[in-house]
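Q: I'm writing a short methods note and want an example of a predicted protein-small molecule complex. Could you take the sequence and the SMILES for adenosine-5'-triphosphate and return the bound structure as tokens? Please keep the output block clean; save any remarks for afterwards.
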Amino acid sequence: MRDIVVAFGERTVLKGLSLDVMPGEIMGFVGASGGGKSVLTRTILGLVPKRSGTVEVFGQNLDGLSFSQRRELEQRWGVLFQQGALFSSLSVRQNIQFPMREYLDISQGLMDEITVAKIEMVGLQPDVIEKMPSELSGGMIKRVALARALALDPEILFLDEPTSGLDPIGAGEFDELIATLQQTLGLTVFMVTHDLDSLHTVCDRIAALADGKVVAVGPIETMLESKHAWVSAYFHGKRARAAGFGPAAGIGPAGGHGREGAR
Ligand SMILES: Nc1ncnc2c1ncn2[C@@H]1O[C@H](COP(=O)(O)OP(=O)(O)OP(=O)(O)O)[C@@H](O)[C@H]1O
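A: Understood, no commentary inside the block.
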């Protein structure tokens, strides 16, 4: 992304934001509430118009694509939104098969086989497939939404606050699942999150958004060393200390973050 400007009326939310996400990395994206994290995600996906700037995905400028090129590209990314994770009136099967119907021309039998594979991939039992979202726990809904995001075997996953609303154990398990899937499928993951544990345990790099721009980007050590007021307050604040952040916990420059240890 280069020099992205997004405004709603008089209010400019993104003020010339630039960021590179590398293939195969898990990039965590943090910033103050209302700062524009979801807006950036939606801008990348083409759901929010930008005033200026360029977004390139797989080396292609998204503004220059024909309708069919755009559809081809959309099959190469999967998205898990913070809200409305699933269509409530559709069963789990219908939810997961939704992108397949939209983009692929394959038989019902094959779609059913893929659905079972995806459900198993996210750690759920196949009997979940016949259920409605209202019959599932919050953690199961997130997993089904992840299965749907994986339906087309994407190369990039966009996750908007995937662990919000989960208890710490559920969130930790979901983080582990994302790290495992990233490793086994070689995914690139762009993850908006407020979850300090997620940032610590699964992200290779973190980008911090403040004042409409990326003000710090790098591994957790870079965040801990940042002199930017918001970044410093976030990564050295009370919540950060409670989550075990900081040099005392071995996550400082001499330490190394959790994901490396987990690899
Ligand atoms: N379609 C829209 N029309 C007008 N304003 C919008 C629109 N979408 C987002 N905004 C505004 O843009 C700002 C950034 O919103 P965004 O949802 O990106 O924040 P966020 O960083 O994701 O916050 P949170 O962490 O609370 O989810 C907010 O002030 C929001 O009200």
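A: Remarks, as requested: The chain has eleven helices and eleven strands. The pocket of adenosine-5'-triphosphate is lined by residues 8, 13, 31, 33-39 (CB under 6 Å).
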